[in-house]
Design brief:
- This protein is mainly alpha-helical and 74 residues long.
- It is 81% helix and 0% strand.
- It is built from four helices and no strands.
- The longest helix has 29 residues.
- The radius of gyration is 17 Å and the shape is elongated.
- The two termini are 28 Å apart.
């Protein structure tokens, strides 16, 4: 279970990073990674944003699971 959730988080991390900074990832990805500590949002912002999206998706998945469980009992 842990590995599945970690894979989902890492996939979100990569997709969000590429989606938000697509042209930079194409032009100079290593410089972009090296510049994270100087970012105005802080070096942790990609992890935080990915985690917030992950939490949102986790809540939806939990609600879906609970809904299916309730419907199965009826």
């Amino acid at each position: 279970m842990f590995w599945k959730e970690l894979k989902i988080y890492l996939l979100l991390f990569v997709l969000l990073s590429v989606a938000m900074h697509f042209s930079i990832w194409l032009d100079h990805p290593l410089e972009h990674i090296k510049s994270l500590p100087k970012s105005s949002m802080g070096w942790w912002h990609p992890f935080l944003f990915a985690f917030l999206v992950y939490l949102f998706i986790a809540v939806i998945r939990l609600l879906d699971f609970l809904f299916k469980k309730v419907m199965k009992k009826k």
